[in-house]
Amino acid sequence: MKKFSGIIPPVSSTFHRDGTLDKKAMREVADFLINKGVDGLFYLGTGGEFSQMNTAQRMALAEEAVTIVDGRVPVLI
User: Fold this and answer.
1) Quick one: which of 19, 40, 60, 66 has the most CB atoms within 10 Å?
2) How far is Cα 20 from Cα 7, in angstroms, rounded to an integer?
3) What's the pLDDT at 48?
């Protein structure tokens, strides 16, 4: 298993007022953090609203995160 090191911040989950995933905001946050030099991104942790999401919402967020990051840094879920 690969050992992770460096700065790997928790990423907040972003939603529209109607409760749907805000993919544009997700991309903006990920791009900002990656451009600032983080070594990875940690989604669905304690700062990510995971406890308020159902399994389908968690899967959708995880899939979108991996798509957005596109291999630029490791994604931890």
Assistant:
1) 40
2) 29
3) 64
